[in-house]
Protein 1
Amino acid sequence: MRGSAPRTVAEPYTAENPELPRPVRNERMAPKARKSKYAEAGVDVKKRGIEVFKGTVENLFPNAFCVVVRDPFSPDHGLVTHTDGAGSKPVQSYLNWRETGDTAWFRGLAQDVLAMNLDDIICVGAEPVNFVDYVALNPFKVPKVELLRELNSGFRECLQTLRDHGVRVIFSGGETADQPDQVRTLDVSGTINGRVELTSVLSGERIKPGNLIIGLRSGGKTKYETRENSGIMCNGLTLARLCLISREYQAKYPEISAEERGYYGKYGPNDYLDELGMTVGEALTSPTRLYAPVVAKIMEEYRPYVTGLIHNTGGGQTKCLRVGRNIHYVKDDLPDVDPIFMLIQRESGEEWRAMYENYNMGVGFEVVAEKEAAEDILSVPERFNLEAKIIGRCERSVGPNKVTIRSPLGKFRYP
């Protein structure tokens, strides 16, 4: 799947490369910050509008990561139902397939939708029960039978990996919809159901000042994975595709983007970049990591010390804002940013402040724990060859939750 000639890309600034321009440090948001490149691409990272459902949803724990409702057949248990998709990553998988003829590019989407749902419900301590998928496609553009065959293979592989590590999820089938008038290429999403004892819910209420934040890396390769991961997960793919992929591919395959919006990158999906260690197409379609095996083991051994779990999907490094109450999350020792995010920022011109809000920036999952157990908890991801470190701490916030990020790329406070 790799292209022929690698392209030369400038390396990011480091102390060893002083001749390169230093990144701009944004100590605080300007009074009138310009619209982010992600927003200009038509995506609202803050998901404005969903607040209208607040009064309709019967959420027992409003400061928890996911909605928990009471199980009507077992009042001491809660039900957790979550639905999510692979974002616009299927469009990149489609382009990779069109350029190579290899339908295997669709297989990783199964892991994307499973991980995006499963790794969310475990954040409240829920045990997964069953999962269903939903596939919408344009049958005039996408080979349906081949697509479904690849997705089936992907689901089988993921479910077996989870079983091998003590996480059982029942696959209950799904729905396939031919929608040539509504879908340009394809969309893949899923829904998962879980249960949790109400007395065991990670509600966010136990997060307190003095807790430490452990970050689990999104890139790299764990013992239960077969290939290197870029760390992209499923968020920010719209901006990533537009800024990296050349407009010639939009002209060749106009179905990959709306007419009023254009690709402006300089790469093809088969271009191999040394800084990525893979092709651009491989980096953009790296499947979202399944954190459940690692988190399940952490909870098995250290549950009394874990006060919060956060899956850094939409909202990136600010996802923690939704968990807990009156907490100031201070992240001042984040790991080096994965190369894919450096590349996206350089090619798009997106502000670093917005990058940390749009992308996980190298940390896909966070474990908030009591200080005395944090170092011991790090031994669990180490067994899985998953890079992890203490990235920050919790302080008291007067009023709503806040996040402060201090990094070599700048200091940022949210909201």
Protein 2
Amino acid sequence: MNKSQPFTEAHYRSLLQKAVRRGNTQLVFTTSALLESLSARRENWLRTRAAIITFEECWPLGRELVFNRKLHSKVAALIKVTQSAKTRDATGLGYLAFALVEGDRSVLTGSADDRHLKIVANAVQRPDDFWQWIDRQNKTPEQASLVAKAIQYRQAGSPMDKAVIQAAAYLAVTGEIPSIRPSDAADQVFPYWVVFDKHTPEGQRALRDVARDLHIPLPQLEWTHFYFEGALTNCALASKWWDGLCRWHFNKIGLALEEAYLLWEPAKPQVMEALAGESRTLHNELYKWKLANRERIDSLKKQVKLFVENFDGIPRDQMGLF
């Protein structure tokens, strides 16, 4: 797209997940099409990322992950998550268990929940034994379907991503899988500045400068930025493990959850201002690409619609045709 394409591509990858979280269907279509246009290699990335985002943002939808060789099958999975209320227990449990593996025992609370944390932490360390144990458990058809998909994508992504997928499988066989509910209507005015978080050079710079100017510890500003903006959804169900992860992280940075908004409220406009130029550039670049590729995006929407509507009737030996 330009001389800094690797950095621009990273921005669109960040944009994609945040659009899914906030329920912005149109932005998911446009960003997915743009990423796929860069090269065929990005479509392979999108397949893996669609699976990870599904388990992270709405783990019960993991059982519906079925991809073929076409882009629209991956985008269909993302759209399902986009249009569903988010359920993040797998992310909370997986991240806490991974922290325990890394030696941080502050994740343990002395409650009965510690047992679950230790089991998933052990799974991270001994994945083959864990998956064999999962396979031996008695399962309902719904549980078996989700476990099968977790096994299929057990090697996807980073070590933390793998922990989330293990947590989803564990939750599936040890309790009821929550019902999938439609999400609320999304605010279509997307705040592009949230794309630039601590994982981007621009976000690192802005957060560092604002933390210095306001005399705020940088870890506190980074986490409140994520908590109030980066992780924001348009609709979420109660998730015990996600809430536990957030409380633990606030304790770790020495900030009470009840006081977090008092820190973020004055910092937010300054972070927005620091990223105003980058936000405008990203928005304008995406808008220009969208205008030049309307037919491509519309075609993708139609393909996703047909895929979702006709999926149950497609014989599995003909999946490659669609």
Protein 3
Amino acid sequence: MKDEKINIGGQAVIEGVMMRSPEYVSTVIRRADGSLETDTKKFIPLTKRVKGLNIPVLRGALGLFEMMKLGIGTLNWSADRAIEDEKAAKGQKVSEKTFTGKVLDALGTSAVLIIALGLFMYIPYKLTGMLEKISENQFLFNLLAGIIRTVFMVMYMYSISFMKDVKRLFQYHGAEHKAIAAFEKGLDIEPENVRAQSRFHPRCGTSFILIAAIITILIFSFFDSFYYIFSEYRNIFERIGVHLLFLPVVAGVSFELLKLSEKYMHLPLVKLLIKPGIWLQHITTNEPDDDQIEVAIESVKRATAYLNVKEDEEEAE
């Protein structure tokens, strides 16, 4: 057990951190009164429960879907607690959401998805389509649209980074990275060890998004060039629909490349390739304070507590 490398991952949530180990997920948040609230549960990925699914690309697509579902659920849980604290501070009654409230939440999520599709797919395709000569070449069309999409993504991240609540979220993101780094180096998960770590991590979701953006450009450039040999898109919405169908493939390939970059990051070329993802983390992470580091530490300890139990059992044998 001690010689086995254990990878953990995480996510910043509202006033807290979620950590995921190979067998558990633990979310720890700071409540308004200063106390910590924890939600820890068993979680084993589908690709480990069904070995036939643990194949390259497919495992990445399935893993992304699971992580999105888990991440959104965890984020909603932390947001509900934050709303409770806000209402309590104002002397308002805290109650369960009504059916109407849940419907409004669903509509709000749908609106976010529509805005995201418009900003990162429709507008880049529309702008590129205005250039007639480029739109005739599908490789160049997707190359330019992808570059515009990536620029929009970076601009969006940068613009929201100035918001007060997002700044705190990015601080917890930094705390998450520091705690993971200390764990992966085999250090005692204590404040001084965690504080000394870098807030940048090569396996960060930010790096994954950037890799996915680049892979999207390449895959759709070649795919559309081949597609236009037999047919063509009648409008932007048809192009978006077809591309959305292939996003799981993009996610799967991006996942495999991220895993490879971690394995070979000691090579100079790989170090150079992962640099843009690290640079982007200058936007999506901030230096955390001691209270936020405490939250991240607690989350790591709870998510990995079972490892200590296994080591004790092995030593007893």
Protein 4
Amino acid sequence: MTLDPSVQTSAFLREMIGRGHIYQLTDEKGLDAYAASGVPTGYIGFDATAKSLHVGSLVQIMNLRRLQQAGGKPIVLMGGGTTKVGDPTDKEKSRPILTVEEIAANMALIKKNFEPFLMFAPGNAFDPKSTDAIMIDNAEWLDRINYIEFLRDYGKHFTINKMIAQETVDRRLRNNEPYTFLEFNYMLLQAYDFMELARTYDCRIQMGGSDQWGNIVNGIDLTRRIVDKQVFGVTTPLITTASGGKMGKTADGAVWLNPEMRSPFDYWQFWRNTEDADVARFMRLFTDLPESEISEHAKAEGAAINDAKNRLADVATGMLHGEEEAKKAAAAAEAVFKGGGSSEGMPTFEVERAKLAAGYAITDALVAAALVDSKGDARRQIAGNAVKLNGESVTDEKLLMTEAVLDADGTARLSVGKKRHARLKAV
């Protein structure tokens, strides 16, 4: 499929195509016409399997942002119902089953991930003429389903032949991996979601990752059969790095959006460590920077590439955590790598001055700072010459830190390798 933003009528498709958000469309001309008229409404579903979304979900959040910026209404569909089943799509094994209480707690935290990117309706009130986003929990209708009626009214529209032909199901079966009946129902529930949103909110667009194509098409088919509405599907490409790695996966785990799970400093560092070949592409996908500026950064060579990476890190961090936190993170990075700037934005752990007065073991400090997993790991890192204290290499695993290591502001900097840093603050 060849997509040309210059031939699109709608601002939504022009922006989505121009910034590289689109992998597949179900009806390009029909979607373009719909998106160019009135207030187009679209949704993406997010299951509450963790306390935060991560960078891997950010392209979907940006899809909703692009829709709102183009005059459309985004619907964030929280999977309070579907999380009880667990999306098997693109998974090699079943997800753990969460309790109702765990799902509710996760949803409360995940909701905060969207607030920096979307303008929500006051009181979450639905107004079809407004572009204000709303957030809906699919448990509102899925929890009320009568199973026998559901099978009778909707199950008849899904054939086993078609369901097991989906790539994820087929792969699991070919590899002789368990695929539970619980998971098998997920595609029916997601299709029902689209139908319910089309019927109740006149929502005509479902977006998702490329792995959701089969589920989205099922929803389009069910909506056409039951509600008799024309609806559309859009998928985004799998976002990988230039070296082939999965976007958002790092050596120390997922890049969470929740600041309690990933500090603004570490989030800034993630974007600063973007591979050279990915900088312009990630600017288009994950920021609102204009193409004129991005094109200039794409020409950068040598040291200028670092300036482009700093710009990406500043803007991406500012969007999620605010400009003030982005400035603190940039200053803290300068303090680590250049010896200037302020370390205030660095992840901080507090140590009582009494401990320093008695001599505070460097291995204890590294564990307390969450820079290593254990004292044994700390000793291995020191032996490998990976640990620094205030920019100086630590070679003695028995080193006892005293108040002499503190700067004038009562802090000291600890680093493990090039990407893990923390600030010790004496209290």
